[in-house]
Amino acid sequence: xxxxxxxxxxxxxxxxxxxxxxxxxxxxxxxxxxxxxxxxxxxxxxxxxxxxxxxxxxxxxxxxxxxxxxxxxxxxxxxxxxxxxxxxxxxxxxxxxxxxxxxxxxxxxxxxxxxxxxxxxxxxxxxxxxxxxxxxxxxxxxxxxxxxxxxxxxxxxxxxxxxxxxxxxxxxxxxxxxxxxxxxxxxxxxxxxxxxxxxxxxxxxxxxxxxxxxxxxxxxxxxxxxxxxxxxxxxxxxxxxxxxxxxxxxxxxxxxxxxxxxxxxxxxxxxxxxxxxxxxxxxxxxxxxxxxxxxxxxxxxxxxxxxxxxxxxxxxxxxxxxxxxxxxxxxxxxxxxxxxxxxxxxxxxxxxxxxxxxxxxxxxxxxxxxxxxxxxxxxxxxxxxxxxxxxxxxxxxxxxxxxxxxxxxxxxxxxxxxxxxxxxxxxxxxxxxxxxxxxxxxxxxxxxxxxxx
Length: 453
Fold this sequence. Notes:
By secondary structure, the chain is an alpha/beta fold. Helices cover 49% and strands 13% of the residues. It has a five-stranded parallel sheet with strand order 2-1-3-4-5, with helices on both faces. A five-stranded parallel sheet has the order 7-8-11-6-12.
């Protein structure tokens, strides 16, 4: 990624000297002799960083800074100041300057600040690009709350769109926290029943004695505490959709009544004699293996086949890791807004830890992780230490130690070897983690004669 730096100073020697120094470090440099010319460049060209003097004719550095922070709040500005104007530089920091350097300029300090500012800018651009990608996905997909560009999630949403308009019962399976409820939401919202009731029942949250009454309703006096007639969830979902989450938790008596609804679209309230007719589409979900439950006698086989007309398997997060950056960006945006923060993104180490963690709690665990990190972070970037210990401990175990005094060639060889071993020899994954192309990786492997363990 090539970064463009705008250097603004009315002294020609300082301006050209800084330009040469920064150009030698690989940056594209644009020179401006005063604030007015700099402001024109900022509005006309893509600029990643501004390095500006404070005292200049036509437009001062203070005025330029105020204009930039107002119109381009994410564009970092480093202020150059003489010893007599340090107080002004401190005021500039309050006005939004990234940092300041005193004259005569220490090029090493300036280089360090530029690297920090550019790194911050890179995070902003990466996060901005991810959010733009999210918006494109939302416009492309008919249902925008299921986030994912991985092949497995695209396949899930293709099935959802294909069957949403049908009356078929759907069984959604997958581990806890993968987003089964969101898939059910998509099925309802994309169906021709979307304007009709959508009723959700979390079966595991209700006791056996309450579940039957909740689903089918009850008549007054049918049991102790039944002081009035109550409509059940199936009745409330007439003409619409009912979502039965954790369907594997229901008892045998309730299973029989649900089977009857599926077969005959009929039921009676608890304690009632009147047969009620309903037209309700049933979507169910479970993290259990229902075929195993059938074998041990916990679940009716005939009910399983009625529920499982279409089966949608939602993959665990560890099998769709390419979706982690998009999900992380979406959660970061959500919790930034919720907590009044402006965190720009994740450091390389934090991003690597998120990618390499196995996520046994799936998307729910990732969401909680990002929320915790946003709340605890004291900077504008989420660092490795901001992440929960359960995630960072594995990342820290994967660190390598290179002794001081080692040559660049030795360090590079160690780093590539460790990465290849971590990826179990998968060169595509290793090149992605290293941020280099496959051809470059192959060349390095041959050059250093690397043989993965």
